Amino acid sequence: MHFTRIDYQDRAQRKSDKGLEVIWRGSRTFGSSSQIFTNAFPVHYSPPKGFSFEVLADDVIPVQDDMLLFDYNVEERVNDFVAAAIAQF
Question: TM segments (predicted)?
Answer without folding.
Answer: none
